[in-house]
Amino acid sequence: MKNADEKSNKQIRRNVNNKIDYVFDEDKYLTEIWDAIDKTYSSHYAQNKVQSTEFIADAGHGEGFCIGNIIKYAQRYGKKGGFNRNDLTKVAHYVIIMLCLHDNYYKRESQGDQYEVK
């Protein structure tokens, strides 16, 4: 569970008006992704306060689940419902979840371009 200071630091980061002139409007798109992620926590996916992705990760299947969903939504973009932006935000969300799993569940060390499980 995240402590209150961590959450407030994240909120501050979201609201800071950076002086960086993002060429591709990354700040705008990161805010859009953040908002999409927030919606998943208030949707039917989190009715029991625990998302199914947590159960899947705890059972040791998180990496495959996330990579599979990244592939699914990336391949679906442009096909189901046309060029659906929602598919792209889902890709980004699963990338973020995979980053968390990478750092916290799998204890990977970077070795150049290769990653090795400890």
What does the model show?
The radius of gyration is 16 Å and the shape is globular. It is mainly alpha-helical and 118 residues long. The chain has five helices and two strands, in the order αααααββ. A hairpin with a 2-residue loop joins strand 1 and strand 2 (114-117). The chain has one domain (23-106). Helix 2 (26-41) packs across helix 5, helix 3 (52-58) packs across helix 4 and helix 4 runs antiparallel to helix 5. It has helices at 4-15, 26-41, 52-58, 62-76, 85-104, and strands spanning 108-111, 114-117. The protein has a two-stranded antiparallel ribbon with strand order 1-2.
Q: Strand-residue fraction?
A: 5-15%
Largest sheet, described in full? Answer: 2 strands, antiparallel
Oligomer: single chain
Q: Strands of the biggest beta sheet: in what spatial order?
A: 1-2
C-alpha termini separation: 24 Å
The H/E string reads HHHHHEE
Structural class: mainly alpha
Unreliable stretches, pLDDT < 50, 5 or more residues?
A: none
The number of strands is: 2
Mean pLDDT: 81
Number of domains: 1
Looking at the structure, what is the overall shape?
Answer: globular
